[in-house]
Amino acid sequence: MEKKYTIMVTVAAGLESVVGQELKNMGYDVRVDNYRVFFEGTQADILRANLWLRTADRVKIVIGSFEAKTFEELFQGIKALPVEDYLNYDSEFPVAGRSRNSALHSVPDVQSITKKAIVQKLQEAYHVRTRLPENGFFAQLEVMISKDQVMLTLDTTGPSLFKRGYRVEKGPAPLKENFAAALILLTNWNKDMPFVDPTCGSGTLPIEAALIGRNLAPGLTRTFDIEKMDWFDHELSDTIRDEAEDKADYDSELNIKGYDVDARMVKIAQENAKHAGLSQDITFGHMDLADWYPEEEAGVLVSNPPYGERMGELEAAEELYKTMGILYKPLKHWSKYILTSDLNFEKAYGQKATKKRKLYNGQLRVDYFQYWAKPNFKK
Ligand code: SAH
């Protein structure tokens, strides 16, 4: 039988259930925890997760876990793990470390003891008596201790999954691509509905919407660390990537628009969309949101407006929220989703949200204010 791995997908705070749902939609049984989601899968599944997950950070393999309260237990526990299944005698393997609520709290010591134990294990497994060269394939390990439970993981992703590779320029306040995708997956939007972002900046939301609408795997334009590892079945790279390309939907008509009051940002958004191969799928325009009125009776609007975080800018931001309220409230069949850190948003907008969701935009605590549409039965 094909080997199964325990896979740990790491996630930004607040998005665990979104990543869990993405994996369930891919057909996996998941266990959702804080900042991470676990599932069991083959090498093909690991590559699929890297290619397809829109809202996760990284896909890691759990090499093993055990309890340790002393450095000796840590050393022996690590040495007992099958690290030689994942590392060659010449692999370059930095060991990152973390410790929380544990007897072994000195992270540098935990890291160096883990490294020592792995070096010894590899020397024995590969019959090498000299120093390990570490000039082979790259394998980022991490040793994590929480309540004396040690877990050793191997990163299969490389640069975080939010780095899709399409962004050429970003402007002053870009959303991370995986966070933008999550904001969209939290709405009721689907590819047959109009989508508009009235404050699009560098275009992250419209671009992620187009990727979702076209059913394009966000990782198709990049590679992952696992694809360079010796023990990985390299034929899978072609098979799983071909499988992903076959799933793309180039036929549906998309109606995705992005506007910004700053003409330079519109140019940047157009460049980024072009780089993502989505120029034909998104209409970007230079417009003040006060001048927008939808042609369509129903649709979904997602906005990441200025938050007024910097001194003296709050008033202007709240003035903008007020304008939004005046314009958007009458659009009964449009769902509106607005992200901001301003706790006074609803007051400025002039309407209580149907639902609020607590999220983190990077380090910043924000709320996702949702105004759900009334059903449009005429459709
Ligand atoms: N989500 C974007 C960042 C948006 S930052 C990204 O990922 O890049 C907020 C944007 O709102 C800025 O680009 C700013 O130019 C724009 N903005 C501010 N006031 C506006 C207005 N009145 N109408 C339209 N856009 C506005």
From TrEMBL:
Domain THUMP: 45-156
GO biological process: methylation
Keyword Ribonucleoprotein: no
Organism expressing this protein natively: Fructobacillus apis
Protein name: Class I SAM-dependent RNA methyltransferase
InterPro entries: DNA_methylase_N6_adenine_CS, RlmKL-like_Mtase, RlmL_1st, SAM-dependent_MTases_sf, THUMP_dom
Keyword Transferase attached: yes
PROSITE patterns the record matches: N6_MTASE, THUMP
Top-rank taxon: Bacteria
Keywords: Methyltransferase, RNA-binding, Transferase
GO MF annotation, one: methyltransferase activity
Pfam families per record: RlmL_1st, THUMP, UPF0020
